[in-house]
Amino acid sequence: MMMHPTKARILEAALALLGRAGAEGFSASALAREAGVSKATLFHHFGTLDEVPLAAFESLWSSRMTAPHLEGLGMRAYMEALGEAVIEVAGKERAFLNAYFVFVTRALFDERMRARLSVGMDELHRSMRAALAARLPSSVSAPLLDTLTRLLGVGLDGLGLHLLLTSDEAELRKTWRMFVELIAQIEEA
Amino acid sequence: MMMHPTKARILEAALALLGRAGAEGFSASALAREAGVSKATLFHHFGTLDEVPLAAFESLWSSRMTAPHLEGLGMRAYMEALGEAVIEVAGKERAFLNAYFVFVTRALFDERMRARLSVGMDELHRSMRAALAARLPSSVSAPLLDTLTRLLGVGLDGLGLHLLLTSDEAELRKTWRMFVELIAQIEEA
C-alpha cells in the first residue's frame, strides 16, 4: 500500500524523535518541527498524537520483519534473522525500543490504542505466518502453523523485553538460537 | 528467609491496592491506609515508594513460581503449570498484571529500579533452574540448563504480555503447550 509522502515523512521523524528524546519528549510541536511540517498538517494525517508512534512502530517492525533480505533464507536462518533484528534494535536503538514498550504499556490501559496495536500485531502475524508456510512442508496443518507463528511472536516480544532489562546480549542470543533449534525440529519431523 | 510481619503485610496491601487501583492509584498515603500502618512505618521498612511494588511482585512471582504444588510434577507438567500461573494472573488479576508491566516499563528508564528488578529476576531464574535440573537427566550440561531456564523466562514474559494485549487465552494456552512440547524433547533426547 502506498503511503502519502508527507505521512511517511512524519513517521520517519517520529522514529527519530522517539529514539532521541524518548516518550517524554514526544509532543505535537516537537514532532511537527522534526518533520518540517505544521501542526495542522500533522493532524491532517493523524487523528491524535498517540496514533503516530503506533503507526511508526508498525511501519518499522513490518519493514524489519518482512525485509527483502529475509526472502532467500531457509527456516532456521529466517527465524535467527528475526531474533537478530530485535537484538540489533535493542543494541543500537535502545531508546527507541524503550519508547516502544512505553506505548505498549500505555495501550494496556487504553482500549482504542490496544485495538490499534492489535491491527499491527495481526498484520505482522500474517506476514510471519506466510513466511513460515513457505518454509515448512505442506503437511503442516493450518492450526499448527497459526500456533507456531504465535509462539514466534511471543518469543520475539519476550526477547525484546529481556534484552532491555538485562542487556545480556550474548546470553540472549544463545537463548534465541536454542529456541530456533527447537522450532526447526518441526520442519524435520 | 523470614520477613518482618509488618513488611509482609505492606507487600500484601500493595498487591491488593495495585490490583484494584492500578499504578495510578498507588501513593504512600493509599498504601499506608490499605496496610493499616502509618507512613513512618511504611518508610521504616522501605527506602522509597517505588521499592514496594517491585518487592511485592517479587514475592508474588516467587510464591507462584516455586509453590509447593509444583513439587511433585514432572518436566512437562511443571512447565505447563508455570504457563497456567501466568494465564491465571492475566485472567483473574488483570489490573495487577497491568501494574506489573507499568513498573517493568518504568524500570527501563531508571537504573536503580532496573538493578532491583534484576535481583528479583535472578532469584526466579535460580529457582526455575533448580526445578529444571531436578527434572532433567544429569547429562544436561550446566550451560544448556542456563540457556533453557532463560528461554523459559523469555517465554513466560512474552506470554504475559500477549495475554494482556490480545486476551486470546485459548490460543495462547495452545501456544504455551507447543512451547512446552518442544522443550520437553530435550528431556527425551
Please, could you describe this protein's structure?
2 copies of one chain form a homodimer. With 189 residues, chain A is mainly α. Helices cover 79% and strands 0% of the residues of chain A. The first copy, chain A, contains 9 helices and no strands. The first copy, chain A, has helices spanning 5-21, 28-35, 39-45, 51-65, 75-92, 94-107, 111-135, 142-166, 169-188. In chain A, α1 crosses α2 (28-35), α4 (51-65) runs parallel beside α7 and α5 runs antiparallel to α9. The longest helix of chain A is centred in the middle third of the chain and has 25 residues, at 111-135. The first copy, chain A, starts with a helix and ends with a helix. At the A-B interface, α6, α7, α8 and α9 of A face α6, α7, α8 and α9 of B.
Overview features:
homodimer; 189 residues; mainly alpha; 9 helices; 0% strand; globular
Secondary-structure blueprint:
The structure is a homodimer of 189-residue chains.
Chain A: H1 5-21, H2 28-35, H3 39-45, H4 51-65, H5 75-92, H6 94-107, H7 111-135, H8 142-166, H9 169-188
Helix pairs in contact in A: 1-2, 1-4, 1-6, 4-7, 5-6, 5-8, 5-9, 7-8, 8-9
